[in-house]
Amino acid sequence: MTEPADTPTIDHAFTGDRRGPAHDPTYAGALSFMRRRYSKDVSGCDLVIWGVPFDLAVSNRPGTRFGPQALRRVSAIFDGDAQYPSRIDPFEHLSAVDYGDCLLPRSDLQGCAKAIEHQAAAIIATGAHLVTLGGDHFITLPLLRAHVARHGKLAVVQFDAHQDTWDDGVGAISHGTFMLEAVREDLIDVERSIQVGIRTVAPRDCGIEVLNAYEAHELGVAGVIERIKLRVGSVPAYLTFDIDALDPAFAPGTGTPVAGGFTAAEALRMVWAIRDLDFRGMDIVEVSPPYDHADATAIAGAAVAQHYIQALALKKAG
Ligand SMILES: [Mn+2]
């Protein structure tokens, strides 16, 4: 049976359009990221959101394979009406779908990397902007490979407690080495890249600017924003947001928490303030729901993506 034509429809994830608001009650209806319609057909899309439920590269606590599910669930409250802080419905301007999740050959780690890269490449080959819900931070390496193949070398803005430039040997599948691997593969414009919120010590910086957490707290949000903009300038860039950039008080649900990080408010203000940089893609990684409390971590992570999506909509709107 079908609903009568004048019955308001919920379950936007499979009934809705690629544009416009959804009207599902926050607590009900089929879940997708911000209630976008699921589709494997991305032709004509401005924005594709997908999940990479991968956590086989962690050095400590696993669980980020459940990240995409949690991020989708808590994003139900961002259902396509006017959003804060842009005050616009991003989906009035962006044709968007939720592509579902990346199919991963779990028993083959190198195969997982290839699957992420190839599926990402296929999506962005259509001209769509890709927002990825992780997954541990290793996934950024194959994501960068796909984005750089299309856009050329990219500046990276990385919010993180960790530099992820440890060395486990060339080709390592690790969430703590992916930035070193990306530098080795010449994917990154290191002179224009910056890591923000760092509060661990890695043996090398690879020429990337490091804005550690204590410096960042001294500078304040406005000072951090200025440093990021100054470093990146107008070159094409990629945003990778490790939720452990936040203090464990605001993001307990993560695999490698470190005390002394940003509040959710500080981080969101930073992401919002750098919205005019020339970002070509982004990911939100390391949300690990088994360690979360009251969805705090997932809510912060979903808000980071929601802010980024609003920025894309403002650019599209002109
Ligand atoms: Mn990290």
TrEMBL record:
The keyword Manganese applies. GO terms for molecular function: agmatinase activity; metal ion binding. It comes from the Bacteria. This is Agmatinase. The lineage of its organism: Bacteria, Pseudomonadati, Pseudomonadota, Alphaproteobacteria, Hyphomicrobiales. InterPro entries: Agmatinase-rel (IPR005925), Ureohydrolase (IPR006035), Ureohydrolase_dom_sf (IPR023696), Ureohydrolase_Mn_BS (IPR020855). Binds 2 manganese ions per subunit. GO terms for biological process: putrescine biosynthetic process from arginine, via agmatine. Residues 1-21 are annotated as: Disordered. Its EC number is 3.5.3.11. It is an enzyme of class 3 (hydrolase). The gene is speB. The keyword Nucleus does not apply. Its cofactor is Mn(2+). Keywords: Hydrolase, Manganese, Metal-binding. CDD domains: Agmatinase_PAH. It comes from Bosea caraganae.
